[in-house]
Amino acid sequence: MDGPAGDGGGGEELIVDRMSPTDAGFYFAESENTPLHVGSVAVFEGPAPSYGEVIRLLLSKMPLVPRYRQRVRPVPFQLGRPLWIDDPHFQILYHVRHTAVPGPGSEEQLRNLAGRVLGQRLDLAKPLWELWLVEGLENGRWAIISKVHHCMIDGVAGTDLMQLMFDITPDATHPEPHDWTPQRTPSGVEVVAGAVQDALTQPLRRLTAGEPGGPGVTRTLAGAGRSLVKALPTVARQLTTPIARSLSGPIGPHRRWAWTEAEFDELKPIRTALGGTVNDVVLASIATGFRDLLERRGALRDGLVVRSMVPVSMRQESERGRLDNRISAVFVDLPVGEADPVARLDSVRRQMDEYKQMMQLVDARSIIAMGDFVAPTLLSLGVRAALGASQFYAQAVTTNVPGPRVPLYVLGRRMTSAHAYVPIAGGTRVSIGIFSYLNTMTFGINADFDGFPDIDLLSAGIRRGIDELKVAAGTADAPAGEQPPAREPTEAAAR
């Protein structure tokens, strides 16, 4: 957030809230076939609350997240990054929708509805969020489908924002809604003048003392240089590794969505027996899902990988609750051409260990901060070019967002499950959003409608991958006629 911009003759001090470079990149990358919002589907025990109850609850919580009443104000000619300004015409009834699924209200019907809702773009002229109250699910249950644009908030901050609606006790009370007065809208002259001033002074501040606690230019460039040198061997190896190019391609306007799930009690014994982390086990299981899908398509061969971009949160503990993106990314080669499930896990573990060492040696926050030196017009073009380039370099996006390990409630109703929705872009036609709640980890799979008519093969394959690793770890019985080979403990397991 920038400082006061003066009253512009209006008698009221104007506080300018300018997008960060990362957030602006997500905003500029939005297109007709590439809606860039994140979302979720949360299912609750019944009975469903009324539409009015949900509206009153949200209005009472709005002061905690002012961004939900703000819209984006672009700067003419992209002279500066867009601003967040209060929407003087904010109407909550537009953002909160009410619908129902027909009987019997099955899980498949909910998935189909959620796929249609989440596949539609948000209106960029209004605050960038929607919430759908869904009634009619089996056993008296109901659901909330939520959408928030990626430029507004990243996954980790999104978990913090669950305070907007969720309580940790069923008997929580909420304050009455209060009237809200929007800050005045800046004039076009103020917007342009502020953008020019920011474009001139922001790099200068970085070049001199820098922002309090922020990286200066020397540290920024040094961090970027170390990152490039350290990453060169990995990049060189990946450039010569055969990738599943058949998974990438043009993205249309429609989406398919599927989900599956696992229990932490299944994943932890695998980690203990075979080594690595729970996240490594999850990525290895996803590799099995892609292996099954490619095998059915007749596109599987030895040595093939599916390269997945894995976002990494750079948010520090002191930054929890800040409404902007603090993320970087690593590229993990999922070894789909490897027939042995334990060898697939070992490959994933080695890669993730390398990335962890690299991230410890490199100040990734300095790399993110380099966006402050890039003109907004070039930033817009650069993000679009990067999204186009991802078509040849990455075939999937996999993001893991840790959720609460305690029960959550909305208006006294307990949430029973939650599923994450991650956008696709740049020719990468499938994403997997992993969300944990209580003892369950869910996998929300979002894919281009035409590119993945067999999305259920991927969903079932992830589940099969978990079961396969359970057998290899000795925590489940092998199917009839199959016995897993005896294995020596891995080095990681021995540690």
Notes on the protein architecture:
The chain has a domain of 280 residues: Chloramphenicol Acetyltransferase. A hairpin with a 6-residue loop joins strand 6 and strand 7. The two termini are 46 Å apart. By secondary structure, the protein is of the alpha+beta class. The protein has a six-stranded mixed beta sheet, with helices on both faces. Helix content is 37%, strand content 20%. It is globular. The longest helix is centred in the middle third of the chain and has 23 residues. The chain has 14 helices and 15 strands. Its EC number is 2.3.1.20.
Short structural summary:
The protein has 495 residues and is α+β, with helices and mostly antiparallel strands. It is 37% helix and 20% strand.
What is the annotated CATH architecture of one domain? 2-Layer Sandwich
Which spans have pLDDT < 50 for at least 5 consecutive residues? 1-11, 154-160, 209-215, 363-371, 480-495
- Supply the CATH superfamily name of one domain: Nonribosomal peptide synthetase, condensation domain
Main sheet specs: 6 strands, mixed
Number of helices: 14
Strand order of the largest sheet: 5-6-7-2-13-12
How are helices and strands ordered from N to C? EHEHEEHEHEEHHHEHHEEHHHEEEEEHH
The percentage of residues in β strands lies in: 15-25%
The overall pLDDT average reads 79
In whole angstroms, how far apart are the ends? 46 Å
Structural class: alpha+beta
Number of separate strands: 15
**Do you know the CATH topology of one domain?**
Chloramphenicol Acetyltransferase
Shape: globular
